[in-house]
Amino acid sequence: MRTTIALVACVAALTTSACATYLDDLNRAEAHYKASEHERALALFRVLEPDLDSLSRADQARYAYLRGMNDYRLGDVFRADARHWLAFAKAIEREQPGSLASEWKPRLEEALRDLNQDVYGVGVFPEEPEESGAADSNKAAAKEGDEAASDSDKPKTDTESDEPKKPTHGDSEP
Fold first, then answer.
1. Which domain holds residue 28?
2. Residue 94: inside a domain, yes or no?
């Protein structure tokens, strides 16, 4: 009986200390990020990444935001990674409002807007709704363009051919 109780206590202590270790790593990474020690922060983020599922959902959002902003500040080489992690943080925040600090949200949106321009192009913001009138006229123009393109892609029959018809044995040339 004593052995079972001791075993349960050891397992509980190990589980609790493991979670504390992940949180400690996240806290240290955040401290490096805030101190503009981005390479050190990145090293800790990379060590912590395989165990991300051990964190609470709010801590996962925190990790994703800090990792994304850290990668964003490291420059061009890490922009794709920054976009991934910031989008992940935004998705968690959307799923579980309040996961991110309120002062982080405007920075997250601004950074994502900049990073999305790399993918979608300058001036294109996919999450902003278009004005209803402009959207309707754009859809109509796109539909007309699609119909014109589909007409030109259809195979033509002999009577629709662009080339003049060649005479056969029974036909006389004019």
1. 11-126
2. yes
Torsion of CA 164, 166, 172, 174, to 10 degrees: 30
Cβ burial of 131 (10 Å; 0-12, 13-18, 19+) is exposed
Give the chain's domain count. Answer: 1
146-163 pLDDT tens trace: 444 444 454 455 555 555
Average pLDDT value over all residues in the chain:
77
CA pair distance 26, 116, nearest whole angstrom:
27
Residue 38 counted as domain residue: yes
Q: What's the rounded Cα separation, in Å, for the pair 81 and 71?
A: 7
**How far is residue 48 from each of residues 7, 42, 71, 80, 152, measured CA to CA in Å?**
28, 10, 15, 19, 55
> Letter for the amino acid at 95?
E
Is 156 inside a domain boundary? no
pLDDT in tens, 69-124: 999 999 999 999 999 999 999 999 999 999 999 999 999 999 999 999 988 886 55
Q: What is the CATH number of the domain that holds 42?
A: 1.25.40
Residue 133 lies in a domain: no
Q: How far is residue 36 CA from its own chain's centroid?
A: 24
End-to-end Cα spacing for the chain = 112
Q: What is the pTM of this model?
A: 0.61
